[in-house]
C-alpha cells in the first residue's frame, strides 16, 4: 500500500467525540482511496493515563502519551491533529508548527481573534519551511456540499443574490440537559455561535467563493443555569441531580451579513430548535439558479436551473452518490449513501494529497481566522445592541 | 339561504389579481358555509368603464361603476372591499368608514405609517357606531396556519424561542421581467418588504401571539431598470422591447427581530429566489415543541412534540384536511386539499360572522398599523446602515 | 358573458359529496375561463323534496325537482349530470341519452360490465345525433396529472417500463367507522376497487396512453360488520351504537397488470392505510426518464430526465402552477396552488369546449367501459384465487 | 481490547463490492462497539494471486490465499465469510460448515431452492456442534429498519393489513450499460428478483414478523443483449464497443403476496426505474398505525400512530439517530447520520454477540431458504403465466 518514504506519522491530541471521528478517518482513508502519502496512527495524547491508553486501544493508535508536548519531540510524528476544546488550540498548534509538525486543528480555530491571529501568523511562518496548517471545517467535504461549490464555480447559478444558512440542533432545548465544557465561555469561547455558527459561516463563504463584508446580530442565552454532568455521553452527558453550573455562552445566534459580491445573507445557529437534530441548511439563490442542502438529508443536493423551459423547471433532487460526484467514486454504487464520518475521511484524503504535493491545504489558518473575525463581528454587534459591524 | 334582513351588500374597488380572488370568495362562502349574514355582490368600481363592466360580468357583480365614491352613496352597499394598490387605501378606506360602510382593505394597510395611523384612527372612530374595518392578511386563514396558531395558544410548544419566517418568490429574478406598479415606490410604497414581507411579519406575530419589539435589516435592489410592460398578465406582465422604467423599490429584504416574549426572529422577503414560487415558510421553535409550515405544501403542518418519548419523537406531517381542523369541515373529505383562494373564502366567513355578532373582526386596522410600524422600522434600519431600531 | 345561443342548461341528479363538487365547478368555470358554451344551473333532482330544495338554494341551482325523469323532459336542460351511486348510473344515463340530453356521469361508469356495455352502446348511438356522453374521471384534470400525460406524449420518458399506482385512504381503518352505501355491494358494485381503484386504473392508462392487456389480483375485506350510520357526514358518517350492518364489498384490492406496450404495472387501492388520507400515487418509469405524482402534494410533479449529465440529474420537483402548465393560466400567479375541486372545474371547461366544437369529450363511455373491464378482470382473478386474466 | 481467548479469526472469500463492505465492517466494529468476541482479519481468498494480494493490503487482511479451500484448513480461521456470486455459495458454505467453521454468507443464500435446502441442512447439522451459519440480509440492520421491526413487535401498529415493498434501481435502464455476472443466470441465478427482490422479501417478513403464504408475479427482461464489459467498476462496469452478451435473467419482477396474518403485500424489484438509485421502500399499514421507510433517506423512519387525536395526528419523521435507537448509541450524537456500510458493521456486532453467547444468529440459513422459496414461487408463477402459487 505504501513505501516507508511515503508515510506520515500522526499524533492526535484529545480522544472524545472529535477524536473518535478523526481516528475513524485516519484508519479508513487508505482503505478506500489511493493516497500519495499514507498516515500512520502513531500516538494519541491525553491527561489521564489509563483513559488515553484505553482510547488508543479502542481507536487504533500505536501508542498513548499523557502530554501533548511529547508528540512534538517524536521523530515518528509528522503531523499533530488537535481535537481538544478551543481554549487549547492556540498553544498546541503554534508549538507544533514551531516544532516543524504539520497541524490539523479542529474548528473553531480559536476562542478569540487574537489567538487566531497568532495561529495564522505561526502558520504563515511555518509554511516558509513547508510545514502546513489546516483547520477542520469538515462539512465542506460532504459530497453534496462539495458539489454545491463546484456548481457555483462552474457559473451554474450565476451571481449570488441570497444565502440563507442555518445550523439547528435541539440538545439544549430541555432545561434539564446538563452542563458541559461547551457551555463554559472559558473553554469554548462562545456557544452556538462558535460551535455551530462557525460551520455555516464557513460553508456560506466556501460554497459561494465570497466573503462577508459586514454583519449584525443578536445572541441569546435562554437557560442560564443547568445541572452539572456526572458523566459525559454524546454531546450532552448525564445530569447530576444536586449541583448546578452557570451557562456563560450563547444558546443561540441570529445574524445578517453582506457578501462581497453584493448579496444578502441570513444566519441562524441554535441548540434550541426542538426536533432539528443536526439540520445544517444552506440555500443559495443566484441570478441563474438556486442550490439547497440540508444535512438531515446529507446525500441530497437540490438544484434549480433557471435556464430550463418553464414547464419542466423544478428543483432537482440530486442523489449525490454517483461516481461523477466529489469523493464518491471511491465508495459504493449509486444510491448507497454515506454518513457523517465520511467527511472526515475526505478531509484526510485532501490533506494527504496536498501535503504530498507541497500545496497549502484548505481551509488554511488564514481562512479560519477570517471565520473568527466574522464571529467576532457578530459578538461585537450583539454586545452593542445589534448594530452593523463592518468587516472590510 | 337568507332573509332580506340578514344580507349585506358589498361593493368592491379594483378587479385585478386581488379583485378576482375576493370575488371568488364572496361568491363561494355562502355555498359551503352557513353564514349569519349573507354577502350580496352589488357593484364593482373601476376607472375604465368598459373594463369594469366586463369584470363585473365575469366576476359576478350585479353592477359596475366608474368611481369608487359612487359605492359610498348607495344604500344597497354596506361594505366596501378595497382591492387597489396601496397608495389609494387610505383615501378610500377612510371615506368609506366615514360614510358608514364597513371596510375590508387589502394589505399592506397603507404605504406609510402616517396613512396607516389615519386609517386606524378612522377605524376606531367608526367602531363607535358599529362600523367595522378589517385588513386582509389572508394567509392567517389557511387551515394549516390557523391550526399552528391554535396549537401555540393551547401551549403545545411552550414559550417561543425562535421564529424563522421567509417569503420567497422568483418572478423578478429574471432581469427581463417587466415593470409593474408593484415596482414603483409611488404606488406600492415598498417592494418585497411591503408586498410579501408584510405577510410574514403578520404571520409571525399572529401565530405566536407576540409582537416584535425591535428590528434591524437590510434592503436591496438587484435590478434597477426593467423593460416597461406592454400588457399585464399574472404578477409580471409582458415586456416591451424598447422602453425601460426605473425600479424604485426593494427587490429583497432581510431582517432580524426580537419578540415580546424574548424570542429571536429572522425574516426574509425576496422575489429573487429562483425556484421558490410562493414559498411562505414559518418555523417556530418553543420550549416544548416546534411547528413548521411552507405554503408550497399548504395543506400540511409539521409539528414536533418534545414531550414524546425520544425513540418515536419526530416532526408529524399533519395533513390539515380533517373535519377537526379550522374551516375544513365545510369542505371535502380528508386528503382532498384546498388551494390558494380558499383562505379568501374563510376571510369572508369570519368577517360575516363578526359583523353579524357585532364583534371587531381581526386583523383590525390597528393590527395592520402594527405591521406597518415593523416595516417602517426595517426601512429606517436599512436606511441607517443596518442598526437596531426599537419598536417599543 | 354569453348570448342565449351559447348557453347550455344543466340538470344534476344527486347532491351529496359529488353534487357539491360538481355544483362548485358549474358555478366557477365561467368565472375564470372563457367558455364557448356557458352552463346554466337549471335544476337539481333528488327524492326528498325538502332536502333537494335546500340543496338547490345552497348549491346555486335555479330549481329543484323530485324525480330525475323530470329533467329529461325540460327544454331548458341540455345536459344531465349524474352524481348518484353507481347502481343508478345505467338507468339514468341511458334514459337521458335517449332523450337527447348530453350526459356527464360520475365514475365508476357502472356497477357491472353488462351495465357499462349498455351505457357505452347508448352513448355510441346518441353520438350519431351529436348527443355526447362523458364519464367523470376527474383526477385526469389535476394540472400535474395533465402535465404528466403531456410529457409522456412528447416522448420525454420514452417507452414505458413500469407503472406503480396506488390509491391509499384510511377512513375505514377504524373498525368503528360506520356503514355507508359505499360498503353495500348492491349500491356500490364494489368497494375500494371500484371507488378508488377505478381512478388509478384510469390514470395509469390515461397518462401512459396505453391499455392493460391482463391482470391478476387479490381482494380483501378486513372488517365484515360495522355500526350503522345515524347520520351522514363526509365520507363516513356518524355511527349508531346499537345496530350493525354487513360490509359486502372489498376493503382493499391489490393487482398486477401488463401494459399494451409491454411494461409492468402494480396497483393498490385501500381504505386501510392509516395516515394516508387521499394518497393517489402514480410513478411511471420509462426508457428515458421517470414521472412521479402524489395527490397529497397535488400541485407538484416530479420528473427525472435520464438524458441529463449524471452529475446534475435528479428528480425535478415541478411546482405545477406556471401559466405554461395545463389549465393554470386562468387561475393565480405561480406558487399559488389549486385544490381538489379545481379538477372538476377543468372538467366543465373541457366538456363545454368539446360540446361547442362538436367533438367527443374524453373519457368517453367507451373509455369508462374499458376501465370497468379491468376492474371486472381483477374481480374474476380474485374470485379464482389470484390467477391471470387476459383482457385482450 | 481483547484477550487471545476472545478472538475469532476470519477468512473472507471474494473481495469485490461485497468484500469491500464486509472488510470495512470487520475493521470497524471493534472500534465503536464492545464486542465479547473480537474478529481478526486473517486471510482473504481469491483466484488471481496478484489481485487478491493487492486486495488484502488495501482492505486490511493479514494474508492472501488463492483457494478458498485453504481457509478451511487454517487453525487461525474460525469463520468463513462468503462474498462471491451466488453460484458458489452452496459449495463453499457447506464445505466450511463441515470443516467446523462458522459461516457468514452473502444473500441470496443460493441460486436454487435445492442448493438452499442443502445449505440449510448443513447448517442444521453444524449447529449440533456449535458451528453457526448466518445469511447476510444486511438491510435488517439499518437502524431505521430495526426500529420499524421493534415498533411492530411492541404492537404499535396492531395487526398488519398491508405491506408495500419496492426495491428500485436504475443502473440497467440504459441499454448501453454493459454485461456483468449479475446478468448471467448461470452465476446469479436470477436478476432483479434474486439480487434485490430478495432483500425486500426478507425485509417484509422480518419487519412484520410474518411469512408469505403465497405469491403471484411477473418477470420481464427489457433489454436482451448488452455490450460486454471491458472492466468492472461499481455495479455496472465499462462497456466494450464491439462484443455483446446475452442477458439471461430478469430485469424486473413484480409480485403480490399474502401474509400469514392475512394481510396483503405488493412487491417490486427493478433496475429500470430511472432516477431511483437504491430506493428500498417499505410501507406497512396496520390496524393501529403505519410505518414507512425509504433507503434513499436511510436515517429516517416515518410512523403514524392512529391512536393520536385526529387534529394533530400525522406521520412522524423520526430521525433515527438517537441513543435510544438500535445500534446508534455507539456512534455519533443525534442528527449525525449513518451510511450504507454501517449496517454491515452492525451485522458483525450481532454475529459476534451471538457466537460469543452460543446463540443462533439471525437470519439463519433456514431463514434464507424461506426467502429462496418465495423467490422460487414467484419464478414458478411467472413461468406459468402469472397464476397463484401457494407456499404453505
Automatic annotation (TrEMBL), chains A, B, C, D:
The answer, when asked if Lipid metabolism is one of the entry's keywords, is: no
- Would I find Nucleus among this entry's keywords? no
The record ties this protein, via InterPro entries, to: Gfo/Idh/MocA-like_OxRdtase_N, Gfo/Idh/MocA_oxidrdct_glycsds, GFO_IDH_MocA-like_dom, NAD(P)-bd_dom_sf
Please state every residue range assigned to the domain named GFO/IDH/MocA-like oxidoreductase: 146-291
GO MF annotations in UniProt:
nucleotide binding; oxidoreductase activity
Residue stretches making up the Gfo/Idh/MocA-like oxidoreductase N-terminal domain: 9-137
Q: Which UniProt keywords apply?
A: NAD, Oxidoreductase
What's the protein here called? Putative dehydrogenase
- Source organism (scientific name): Promicromonospora sukumoe
Give the lineage: Bacteria, Bacillati, Actinomycetota, Actinomycetes, Micrococcales
